[in-house]
Design a protein that fits this description.
- The complex is a heterodimer.
- Chain A is mainly alpha-helical.
- Chain A has one domain.
- Chain A is built from ten helices and no strands.
- The longest helix of chain A has 30 residues.
- The two termini of chain A are about 15 Å apart.
- Chain B has one domain.
- Chain B is about 65% helix and about 0% strand.
- Chain B is built from ten helices and no strands.
- Chain B is globular, with a radius of gyration of 19 Å.
- The termini of chain B are far apart.
- The chains are: A mainly alpha, B mainly alpha.
- At the A-B interface, helix 2, helix 3, helix 5, helix 8 and helix 10 of A face helix 2, helix 4 and helix 10 of B.
Chain lengths: ~200, ~210
C-alpha cells in the first residue's frame, strides 16, 4: 500500500509530466487560455492515462516483451516483439480514445459537451504515449502499480494545466513587453513554475 | 532558363519561411515537448534534429503521394501508422549505430510519433500538396525545428557544463582559473523553457509582425 502511495506522489510531483519531462507541452500551451478549458483538458488526460497505461502494461507483459509469449506456447520463449511497441501503443491509444469518446457521448452527454473537442486531441498528446513508454522503461511490478502511475501522471498534468491557466487569466491585466506577449511570457512562467516544482526533488520516497 | 530552375520562388519560400516567419517551434507552437527535453547537450539535439528531418521529409512525401486515397474520417490513424513505421526504423537504426545517444534520448525517439510538428505538417500541408512541394516543406520545417534545438542546446551546454559537443571549450580557454563556475541551473529542465522564452522575445523584437495582439 505504501509503495502505491509512493508511486502516486512521485508521479504527481517529482516526475511531473509537464515540468520534469515537458510532455504534453503542445496541448498545455494551446488549451490553457482559460481555467475552464484547462479543467476539461486536465480531466480528459487523467481519464485516458488511467485507461491506456494498464492496457499497454498488459500488452507489454503478455505479448511484446522478450519471452512474453510463453503463455501461448513454450516454443515462443525466444520471440522478442519489443520493436513493435511504438506502433502497438499508439494503436491502443488512438482506438481507446475513439472508444472512450463514443461511450462518453452515448452515456454522459453533459460530460461530452464539456470535454468535446479535447478528447480527439488527446490521441496525439505526447503525455499519453509518454506515460506508456515510461511505464515500459521503468518496468512496474504489477498492473496495479502501472494504473496508479498512470493516474498520478494524469493528476500531475491536471495540476500543471490548471495552474498555468489561472496565471494566464490574471496576466492579461499586466503590462507585458509587446514582444514577449502571449507565447513568450507563457514559456517563462512555465519555467518558473518548473523551478518551483524542482524543490520536490529533495523528497526521498 | 530560369523557368526550369530546380527551385521556383514559391519553392524557396517553402524552404525559408519555417526558418523565421513561420518557425514550427516559436510561431506555430508545434513539437515543443521533445525540443525542450533533449537540449541539455548538443549531441542528442543534433541526432534528434536529424531523426525528425528523416521522419518528417519521408512522411510528408508518403502522405502526399497517398493524399487522394486517404478517407478523411480515418486520416489520423493513417498518419499514425505512417509515422510509427518510420519512427521504428529510425529507432532501430539509432540503436544499431549510435547506441549511447539512443540511450540518452530514451523515450523521446518514440515520442517523435506524437511530435505535433509531424502530425501538424501532414494535416496542414502534405494532405493538400504534391509530393515535391511536400518534400520541400518537410525539409524547411525540420530545419526550422533543428535550428532552435541546436541554438538552445548550444547555450545550455556551454553555460551548464562548459563543453561544446563534449569538447571542454571553457577549460581549454582557461576561464575557470579566473574564477568562473558552471551554472548548474542551465542543466535543469526549467531553464530550457526560459531559454526558448528569451529566444522568442528576441525573435519577435526583431520581427515585429509576429507580435501577438493583446
Amino acid at each position: 500500500m505504501q509503495d502505491l502511495a509512493n508511486i502516486f506522489i512521485k508521479s504527481i510531483f517529482i516526475d511531473n509530466m509537464v515540468f520534469a519531462y515537458f510532455l504534453g507541452m503542445c496541448s498545455y500551451l494551446a488549451i490553457s487560455k482559460t481555467v475552464k478549458t484547462g479543467l476539461g483538458m486536465g480531466a480528459a488526460v487523467i481519464f485516458v492515462l488511467g485507461i491506456t497505461v494498464p492496457i499497454n502494461y498488459l500488452l507489454e507483459n503478455y505479448i511484446l516483451q522478450e519471452g512474453a509469449l510463453k503463455w501461448l506456447n513454450p516454443d515462443f520463449e525466444s520471440v522478442d516483439l519489443s520493436f513493435l511497441s511504438f506502433i502497438m501503443f499508439i494503436a491502443v491509444i488512438a482506438s481507446m480514445v475513439q472508444l472512450v469518446e463514443m461511450l462518453v457521448e452515448k452515456f454522459l452527454p453533459s460530460l461530452y459537451s464539456s470535454l468535446g473537442i479535447f478528447l480527439p486531441l488527446i490521441a496525439v498528446n505526447c503525455a499519453i504515449l509518454g506515460g506508456s513508454l515510461f511505464m515500459q522503461e521503468r518496468a512496474y511490478n504489477d498492473i496495479v502499480e502501472a494504473t496508479v502511475f498512470g493516474l498520478g501522471s494524469g493528476v500531475g498534468f491536471f495540476l500543471a494545466i490548471v495552474g498555468i491557466a489561472a496565471i494566464r487569466e490574471k496576466i492579461r491585466y499586466s503590462n507585458v513587453p509587446p514582444a514577449l506577449r502571449g507565447l513568450g511570457i507563457t514559456y517563462i512562467i512555465t519555467g518558473l513554475m518548473g523551478i518551483a516544482f524542482m524543490s520536490f526533488m529533495g523528497i526521498k520516497l | 532558363m530560369s523557368k526550369f530552375s530546380l527551385l521556383s520562388k514559391k519553392d524557396k519560400k517553402l524552404l525559408s519561411d519555417p526558418l523565421d516567419d513561420n518557425n514550427p517551434i516559436t510561431v506555430q507552437v508545434l513539437g515543443i515537448c521533445s525540443a525542450l527535453a533533449i537540449t541539455v547537450k548538443l549531441k542528442p539535439a543534433v541526432v534528434m534534429a536529424i531523426s525528425v528531418l528523416a521522419v518528417l521529409t519521408v512522411g510528408n512525401v508518403i502522405v502526399s503521394l497517398m493524399r487522394k486515397m486517404i478517407p478523411s474520417r480515418i486520416r489520423i490513424i493513417v498518419f499514425l501508422v505512417v509515422i510509427a513505421t518510420l519512427v521504428i526504423l529510425v529507432d532501430q537504426i539509432l540503436k544499431a549505430y549510435v547506441y549511447d545517444v539512443s540511450k540518452e534520448l530514451s523515450v523521446f525517439v518514440g515520442l517523435i510519433i506524437t511530435n505535433c510538428i509531424i502530425m501538424g505538417r501532414f494535416e496542414a500541408f502534405a494532405l493538400a500538396n504534391p509530393p515535391y512541394k511536400a518534400f520541400l516543406d518537410g525539409v524547411g520545417n525540420s530545419f526550422g525545428y533543428g535550428v532552435i534545438l541546436i541554438v538552445v542546446a548550444f547555450f545550455r551546454e556551454l553555460l551548464g557544463s562548459g563543453t561544446l559537443y563534449g569538447y571542454p571549450v571553457l577549460k581549454n580557454l582557461g576561464i575557470y582559473e579566473v574564477g568562473y563556475e558552471n551554472n548548474g541551473m542551465m542543466i535543469l529542465p526549467p531553464m530550457a523553457l526560459i531559454t526558448v522564452g528569451i529566444l522568442i522575445w528576441w525573435q519577435r523584437a526583431r520581427n515585429e509582425k509576429l507580435i501577438e495582439e493583446k
